[in-house]
Design goal:
Layout: E1 8-9, E2 15-20, H1 34-53, E3 57-67, E4 76-86, E5 90-100, E6 107-119, E7 132-133, H2 137-157
Parallel strand pairs: 1-7
Antiparallel strand pairs: 2-4, 3-6, 4-5, 5-6
Length: about 160
């Protein structure tokens, strides 16, 4: 069993989820409600943060969500979530949403989001989380971009 303070690779906590867009998920234009997508994004991102910290987590900030293309009824939705940055107690999770037409196999990037989580101790206070092991060029780039995103978020709070 891994020590809870040992650094962890990005790949060890990454999550992929799939959902089928059903009629009750959609609006009168037969495209998905944004709130449904946001819920799926938050769920996938929370799982990433929990897997990394091995602790309960809470969403503390949504640092952006961009809807790039509609997701239609019957589409298969793939949600890819992974850690971009880890600070002392905060974790920035990047999420990419793809919609796939199951009949043609054509896939399109529909949504991007960034969410910040903190891990909680046994009485609900933020707790320090383990460091992140960066293995690829993309992971290193995302980490630096994530650090800038967190720094900008902290400046805007003042």
């Amino acid at each position: 069993m891994q020590n809870l303070s040992d650094p962890k690779k990005v790949s060890e906590s990454a999550v992929e989820m799939r959902n089928l867009v059903m009629p009750n998920d959609t609006n009168p234009q037969n495209s998905i409600f944004g709130g449904v997508v946001m819920s799926w994004i938050d769920m996938a991102a929370a799982m990433v943060a929990e897997r990394h910290s091995n602790r309960p987590v809470v969403t503390v900030h949504v640092d952006g969500i961009s809807f790039k293309a509609p997701i239609k009824i019957g589409d298969h939705v793939l949600i890819k979530a992974s850690l971009n940055y880890v600070g002392k107690s905060s974790m920035l999770v990047g999420v990419k949403v793809l919609a796939e037409n199951p009949f043609t196999g054509i896939s399109r990037h529909t949504t991007t989001a960034y969410l910040v989580f903190v891990a909680l101790d046994d009485i609900g206070r933020p707790i320090q989380v383990r460091e992140l092991i960066l293995e690829t060029v993309d992971e290193k780039r995302r980490f630096e971009e994530g650090k800038q995103r967190i720094d900008a978020m902290k400046k805007n709070k003042k």
